User: What shape does this take?
Amino acid sequence: MVTLSLGIALGSLICLSTVLFTFVGFTNTWSAWQRYEGQHHHRAEFEVIRAYVEKQKGGPYVYANGLVEGQREWMSLHDYLHHTPRDEAELAARVAPKTSIPIYFLPDMKGQARVRVFDEIPPAEAYHRRAMTTLKNGPLVLTVSAAATFALWMLRARFS
Assistant: This one.
């Protein structure tokens, strides 16, 4: 009986978390898609001048200062590295000055949004695909976890 109650509590937590994370994930990627949709972009190279690790509450933030087409720009290195370095020394070993990073350059945007790591899929399309994947998978996970929670609830009611 206690096991069923724990299962119901866990299932309820999964349902609540799924709704929350699906909503947040979808709205973030949807707004990013809207920001990049229709923006002029072209392929360019980002030449690193210096890379930085900034310790923040949610974990380190890794970014670089560099040149794109002769202009100084800032770039988040998260998508480029795929793994957050532990410290400045590890970052310097992985992203040394003069490192050339292929990027999409969006000259009409401001800040770090102007520079996106090059991928086969342009930024707007990548964000749109992620939004649609989240919209597709979130309700599926919610349905499965809600059905399992309901089944546990029915079992507990039957054996009470």
